[in-house]
Amino acid sequence: MTDFGKFYQQIATGPLAHWLETLPAQVGTWQREALHGQFKQWMRSVSFLPELTPAHLDLQNGVCATADAPLSDGQKTGIEKLLRNLMPWRKGPFDLYGIHIDTEWRSDLKWDRVLPHISPLAGRTILDVGCGSGYHLWRMVGAGASLAVGIDPTQLFLCQFEAVRKLLGNDQRAHLLPLGIEQLPALNAFDTVFSMGVLYHRRSPLDHLWQLKDQLVQDGELVLETLVVEGDENQVLVPGERYARMRNVYFIPSALALKKWLEKCGFVDVHIADQCVTTLDEQRRTSWMASESLEDFLDPADHSKTCEGYPAPLRAIVTARKP
Questions:
Q1: Above 70 in pLDDT, residue 238?
Q2: Residue 54 in contact with residue 24, Cβ under 8 Å?
Q3: Is 315 annotated as belonging to a binding site?
Q4: Residue 28 lies in a domain
Q5: Is 154 annotated as a binding residue?
Q6: CATH number at residue 316
Protein backbone atom coordinates (compact mmCIF):
# COMPACT_ATOMS: atom_id res chain seq x y z
CA MET A 1 0.00 0.00 0.00
CA THR A 2 1.22 3.49 -0.80
CA ASP A 3 2.43 5.33 2.31
CA PHE A 4 1.74 9.08 2.39
CA GLY A 5 3.22 9.53 5.87
CA LYS A 6 6.39 11.21 4.64
CA PHE A 7 4.31 13.77 2.76
CA TYR A 8 2.22 14.46 5.87
CA GLN A 9 5.41 15.04 7.87
CA GLN A 10 6.76 17.32 5.17
CA ILE A 11 3.77 19.67 5.20
CA ALA A 12 3.10 19.54 8.95
CA THR A 13 4.97 22.75 9.77
CA GLY A 14 4.49 24.87 6.63
CA PRO A 15 1.70 26.77 4.87
CA LEU A 16 0.04 23.47 3.88
CA ALA A 17 -0.29 22.27 7.51
CA HIS A 18 -4.04 22.96 7.62
CA TRP A 19 -4.52 20.45 4.78
CA LEU A 20 -3.86 17.74 7.37
CA GLU A 21 -7.27 18.51 8.88
CA THR A 22 -8.90 16.72 5.93
CA LEU A 23 -6.28 14.95 3.80
CA PRO A 24 -5.42 11.85 5.86
CA ALA A 25 -9.11 10.97 6.28
CA GLN A 26 -9.71 11.35 2.53
CA VAL A 27 -6.73 9.16 1.68
CA GLY A 28 -7.82 6.61 4.29
CA THR A 29 -11.29 6.42 2.75
CA TRP A 30 -9.72 5.96 -0.69
CA GLN A 31 -7.50 3.13 0.57
CA ARG A 32 -10.43 1.34 2.21
CA GLU A 33 -13.19 1.85 -0.34
CA ALA A 34 -12.00 3.02 -3.76
CA LEU A 35 -9.03 0.93 -4.87
CA HIS A 36 -9.00 -0.11 -8.53
CA GLY A 37 -9.25 -3.86 -9.10
CA GLN A 38 -5.71 -3.96 -10.51
CA PHE A 39 -4.15 -1.58 -7.99
CA LYS A 40 -2.56 -4.29 -5.84
CA GLN A 41 -1.16 -5.97 -8.94
CA TRP A 42 0.33 -2.68 -10.17
CA MET A 43 1.83 -1.91 -6.77
CA ARG A 44 3.30 -5.41 -6.61
CA SER A 45 5.27 -4.57 -9.75
CA VAL A 46 6.45 -1.35 -8.07
CA SER A 47 7.49 -3.27 -4.96
CA PHE A 48 9.66 -5.62 -7.04
CA LEU A 49 11.59 -2.73 -8.58
CA PRO A 50 15.04 -2.20 -7.07
CA GLU A 51 15.65 0.94 -5.04
CA LEU A 52 18.26 2.73 -7.11
CA THR A 53 20.01 5.99 -6.30
CA PRO A 54 21.22 7.68 -9.49
CA ALA A 55 24.81 8.82 -9.66
CA HIS A 56 23.63 11.44 -12.16
CA LEU A 57 20.10 12.86 -12.15
CA ASP A 58 19.06 15.38 -14.81
CA LEU A 59 15.63 16.92 -14.25
CA GLN A 60 16.41 20.12 -16.15
CA ASN A 61 16.66 18.66 -19.65
CA GLY A 62 14.35 15.69 -19.11
CA VAL A 63 13.81 13.00 -16.48
CA CYS A 64 17.05 11.12 -16.84
CA ALA A 65 18.84 8.94 -14.27
CA THR A 66 22.13 7.12 -14.78
CA ALA A 67 24.42 5.04 -12.60
CA ASP A 68 28.21 5.13 -12.39
CA ALA A 69 28.34 1.51 -13.55
CA PRO A 70 25.84 0.48 -16.27
CA LEU A 71 23.17 -2.02 -15.26
CA SER A 72 23.63 -5.53 -16.55
CA ASP A 73 21.43 -6.70 -19.41
CA GLY A 74 19.58 -8.92 -16.94
CA GLN A 75 18.92 -6.02 -14.55
CA LYS A 76 17.65 -3.80 -17.38
CA THR A 77 15.42 -6.55 -18.74
CA GLY A 78 13.93 -7.18 -15.30
CA ILE A 79 13.26 -3.50 -14.62
CA GLU A 80 11.77 -2.93 -18.07
CA LYS A 81 9.42 -5.90 -17.65
CA LEU A 82 8.13 -4.50 -14.35
CA LEU A 83 7.66 -1.04 -15.88
CA ARG A 84 5.80 -2.54 -18.84
CA ASN A 85 3.39 -4.13 -16.35
CA LEU A 86 2.24 -0.54 -15.74
CA MET A 87 1.30 0.19 -19.36
CA PRO A 88 -0.10 2.25 -20.95
CA TRP A 89 2.43 5.03 -20.30
CA ARG A 90 0.89 8.26 -21.59
CA LYS A 91 3.00 11.17 -20.24
CA GLY A 92 6.81 11.25 -20.35
CA PRO A 93 9.35 10.32 -21.65
CA PHE A 94 11.61 8.87 -18.97
CA ASP A 95 15.22 7.75 -19.40
CA LEU A 96 16.13 5.51 -16.49
CA TYR A 97 19.47 3.69 -16.45
CA GLY A 98 19.43 3.00 -20.16
CA ILE A 99 15.70 2.15 -20.29
CA HIS A 100 13.76 4.63 -22.44
CA ILE A 101 10.04 4.83 -21.63
CA ASP A 102 8.74 6.25 -24.89
CA THR A 103 5.35 7.54 -23.80
CA GLU A 104 2.37 8.44 -25.99
CA TRP A 105 2.84 12.15 -25.28
CA ARG A 106 6.13 13.98 -25.67
CA SER A 107 5.41 15.97 -22.54
CA ASP A 108 8.89 17.47 -22.75
CA LEU A 109 7.74 19.45 -25.79
CA LYS A 110 4.85 20.94 -23.79
CA TRP A 111 7.22 21.81 -20.96
CA ASP A 112 9.58 23.55 -23.37
CA ARG A 113 6.63 25.70 -24.52
CA VAL A 114 5.42 26.45 -20.99
CA LEU A 115 8.65 27.23 -19.14
CA PRO A 116 9.66 30.48 -20.90
CA HIS A 117 6.32 32.12 -20.07
CA ILE A 118 5.97 31.47 -16.34
CA SER A 119 7.44 32.97 -13.17
CA PRO A 120 10.68 31.25 -12.09
CA LEU A 121 9.85 28.16 -10.03
CA ALA A 122 12.91 28.33 -7.75
CA GLY A 123 11.86 27.94 -4.12
CA ARG A 124 8.16 27.71 -4.96
CA THR A 125 5.51 25.34 -3.65
CA ILE A 126 3.58 24.02 -6.64
CA LEU A 127 0.32 22.18 -7.31
CA ASP A 128 -0.17 20.30 -10.60
CA VAL A 129 -3.84 19.42 -11.12
CA GLY A 130 -4.46 16.35 -13.27
CA CYS A 131 -0.74 15.57 -13.28
CA GLY A 132 -0.90 12.15 -14.95
CA SER A 133 2.15 10.02 -14.18
CA GLY A 134 3.92 13.04 -12.69
CA TYR A 135 6.37 13.77 -15.51
CA HIS A 136 5.95 17.53 -15.12
CA LEU A 137 6.35 17.29 -11.34
CA TRP A 138 9.94 16.13 -11.87
CA ARG A 139 10.55 18.90 -14.39
CA MET A 140 9.20 21.41 -11.83
CA VAL A 141 11.69 20.05 -9.29
CA GLY A 142 14.37 20.37 -11.95
CA ALA A 143 13.39 24.03 -12.36
CA GLY A 144 14.02 24.61 -8.65
CA ALA A 145 10.64 24.04 -6.97
CA SER A 146 11.00 23.31 -3.26
CA LEU A 147 7.89 21.07 -3.32
CA ALA A 148 5.80 19.84 -6.27
CA VAL A 149 2.45 18.24 -5.39
CA GLY A 150 0.39 16.53 -8.06
CA ILE A 151 -3.21 15.37 -7.81
CA ASP A 152 -4.79 12.85 -10.18
CA PRO A 153 -7.51 10.31 -9.35
CA THR A 154 -6.31 7.78 -11.96
CA GLN A 155 -4.65 5.09 -9.87
CA LEU A 156 -2.41 3.69 -12.59
CA PHE A 157 -0.74 7.11 -12.76
CA LEU A 158 0.01 6.93 -9.02
CA CYS A 159 1.67 3.54 -9.53
CA GLN A 160 3.72 4.87 -12.46
CA PHE A 161 4.79 7.86 -10.38
CA GLU A 162 5.84 5.67 -7.46
CA ALA A 163 7.79 3.40 -9.83
CA VAL A 164 9.74 6.35 -11.25
CA ARG A 165 10.27 7.84 -7.78
CA LYS A 166 11.73 4.53 -6.55
CA LEU A 167 14.20 4.55 -9.44
CA LEU A 168 15.13 8.17 -8.67
CA GLY A 169 16.35 7.36 -5.16
CA ASN A 170 12.96 7.78 -3.44
CA ASP A 171 13.11 11.54 -4.04
CA GLN A 172 10.71 13.39 -1.69
CA ARG A 173 10.60 16.72 -3.51
CA ALA A 174 7.59 15.54 -5.56
CA HIS A 175 4.42 13.78 -4.41
CA LEU A 176 1.28 12.52 -6.14
CA LEU A 177 -2.05 12.20 -4.32
CA PRO A 178 -4.99 10.17 -5.75
CA LEU A 179 -7.47 13.05 -5.53
CA GLY A 180 -9.48 15.29 -7.81
CA ILE A 181 -9.49 19.09 -7.52
CA GLU A 182 -13.05 19.02 -6.18
CA GLN A 183 -11.76 17.15 -3.09
CA LEU A 184 -9.38 19.94 -2.09
CA PRO A 185 -10.40 22.57 0.45
CA ALA A 186 -9.51 26.20 -0.27
CA LEU A 187 -5.83 25.90 0.72
CA ASN A 188 -4.65 29.34 -0.49
CA ALA A 189 -1.11 27.99 -0.10
CA PHE A 190 0.53 27.30 -3.47
CA ASP A 191 2.80 29.81 -5.20
CA THR A 192 2.05 28.32 -8.64
CA VAL A 193 -0.86 26.13 -9.74
CA PHE A 194 -0.77 24.25 -13.03
CA SER A 195 -3.85 22.88 -14.78
CA MET A 196 -2.77 21.25 -18.03
CA GLY A 197 -5.16 19.22 -20.16
CA VAL A 198 -8.01 19.34 -17.64
CA LEU A 199 -10.37 22.27 -18.31
CA TYR A 200 -12.21 20.74 -21.29
CA HIS A 201 -13.06 17.66 -19.18
CA ARG A 202 -14.89 19.76 -16.58
CA ARG A 203 -18.65 20.08 -16.84
CA SER A 204 -18.42 23.51 -15.23
CA PRO A 205 -15.21 25.20 -16.43
CA LEU A 206 -15.73 28.38 -14.40
CA ASP A 207 -16.11 26.33 -11.23
CA HIS A 208 -12.78 24.69 -12.12
CA LEU A 209 -11.14 28.10 -12.47
CA TRP A 210 -12.50 29.14 -9.07
CA GLN A 211 -11.19 25.91 -7.53
CA LEU A 212 -7.74 26.61 -8.97
CA LYS A 213 -7.83 30.17 -7.65
CA ASP A 214 -8.70 28.88 -4.17
CA GLN A 215 -5.42 26.95 -4.05
CA LEU A 216 -3.18 29.96 -4.77
CA VAL A 217 -1.55 32.36 -2.37
CA GLN A 218 -2.13 36.05 -2.96
CA ASP A 219 -0.12 37.05 -6.07
CA GLY A 220 0.24 33.36 -6.94
CA GLU A 221 0.36 32.35 -10.58
CA LEU A 222 -2.00 30.08 -12.51
CA VAL A 223 -0.58 28.25 -15.52
CA LEU A 224 -3.40 26.91 -17.68
CA GLU A 225 -2.86 24.70 -20.72
CA THR A 226 -5.91 23.48 -22.57
CA LEU A 227 -7.65 22.85 -25.87
CA VAL A 228 -8.94 25.98 -27.62
CA VAL A 229 -10.57 26.85 -30.93
CA GLU A 230 -10.01 29.78 -33.24
CA GLY A 231 -12.37 32.71 -32.77
CA ASP A 232 -13.30 35.86 -30.89
CA GLU A 233 -14.05 36.23 -27.20
CA ASN A 234 -17.55 34.76 -27.65
CA GLN A 235 -16.48 31.62 -29.54
CA VAL A 236 -16.95 28.33 -27.66
CA LEU A 237 -17.21 24.83 -29.15
CA VAL A 238 -19.60 22.46 -27.39
CA PRO A 239 -18.89 19.06 -28.99
CA GLY A 240 -21.32 16.19 -29.25
CA GLU A 241 -20.74 12.83 -27.59
CA ARG A 242 -17.06 12.74 -28.55
CA TYR A 243 -14.27 15.06 -29.60
CA ALA A 244 -11.23 13.37 -31.19
CA ARG A 245 -12.75 10.14 -29.85
CA MET A 246 -12.59 11.49 -26.28
CA ARG A 247 -15.67 11.31 -24.13
CA ASN A 248 -16.37 13.96 -21.50
CA VAL A 249 -15.25 16.96 -23.53
CA TYR A 250 -17.70 19.68 -22.56
CA PHE A 251 -16.51 23.17 -23.57
CA ILE A 252 -13.60 24.26 -25.79
CA PRO A 253 -13.34 28.06 -25.76
CA SER A 254 -11.26 30.31 -27.96
CA ALA A 255 -8.17 31.65 -26.20
CA LEU A 256 -9.86 35.06 -26.04
CA ALA A 257 -12.98 33.56 -24.46
CA LEU A 258 -10.79 31.73 -21.96
CA LYS A 259 -9.11 35.03 -21.07
CA LYS A 260 -12.56 36.50 -20.47
CA TRP A 261 -13.53 33.53 -18.26
CA LEU A 262 -10.41 33.98 -16.13
CA GLU A 263 -11.09 37.68 -15.70
CA LYS A 264 -14.70 36.88 -14.76
CA CYS A 265 -13.31 34.63 -11.99
CA GLY A 266 -11.22 37.50 -10.64
CA PHE A 267 -7.81 36.71 -12.12
CA VAL A 268 -5.63 39.59 -13.31
CA ASP A 269 -2.66 39.94 -15.65
CA VAL A 270 -4.15 37.28 -17.94
CA HIS A 271 -1.74 36.54 -20.78
CA ILE A 272 -2.20 34.24 -23.77
CA ALA A 273 1.36 32.94 -23.95
CA ASP A 274 1.23 30.37 -26.74
CA GLN A 275 -1.04 28.58 -29.20
CA CYS A 276 -0.07 25.59 -31.31
CA VAL A 277 -1.62 22.67 -33.16
CA THR A 278 -0.86 19.26 -31.65
CA THR A 279 1.38 17.34 -34.05
CA LEU A 280 1.76 13.63 -34.74
CA ASP A 281 5.29 13.91 -33.32
CA GLU A 282 3.94 15.07 -29.97
CA GLN A 283 1.15 12.52 -29.51
CA ARG A 284 1.50 9.08 -31.08
CA ARG A 285 1.30 5.34 -30.57
CA THR A 286 4.48 3.72 -29.15
CA SER A 287 5.50 0.32 -27.81
CA TRP A 288 4.72 1.68 -24.32
CA MET A 289 1.21 2.86 -25.35
CA ALA A 290 0.04 0.53 -28.09
CA SER A 291 -3.62 1.55 -28.47
CA GLU A 292 -5.04 4.28 -30.70
CA SER A 293 -3.52 7.76 -30.59
CA LEU A 294 -3.82 11.13 -32.34
CA GLU A 295 -3.44 9.87 -35.91
CA ASP A 296 -6.48 7.63 -35.37
CA PHE A 297 -8.50 10.55 -33.96
CA LEU A 298 -8.08 12.79 -37.04
CA ASP A 299 -9.88 12.74 -40.37
CA PRO A 300 -7.59 10.52 -42.50
CA ALA A 301 -8.22 12.72 -45.55
CA ASP A 302 -7.83 16.06 -43.75
CA HIS A 303 -5.69 16.33 -40.61
CA SER A 304 -7.06 19.81 -39.93
CA LYS A 305 -10.22 18.09 -38.65
CA THR A 306 -11.00 15.43 -36.07
CA CYS A 307 -12.70 12.24 -37.22
CA GLU A 308 -15.99 13.83 -36.07
CA GLY A 309 -15.39 16.90 -38.25
CA TYR A 310 -14.42 19.37 -35.52
CA PRO A 311 -11.25 21.51 -35.74
CA ALA A 312 -8.16 19.44 -34.95
CA PRO A 313 -6.64 19.85 -31.47
CA LEU A 314 -5.25 23.34 -30.94
CA ARG A 315 -3.74 24.02 -27.52
CA ALA A 316 -3.09 27.27 -25.69
CA ILE A 317 -0.99 28.26 -22.68
CA VAL A 318 -2.49 31.06 -20.58
CA THR A 319 -1.01 32.55 -17.43
CA ALA A 320 -2.85 34.64 -14.84
CA ARG A 321 -2.37 35.99 -11.33
CA LYS A 322 -4.56 35.86 -8.22
CA PRO A 323 -4.72 39.43 -6.85
A1: yes
A2: no
A3: yes
A4: no
A5: yes
A6: 3.40.50.150
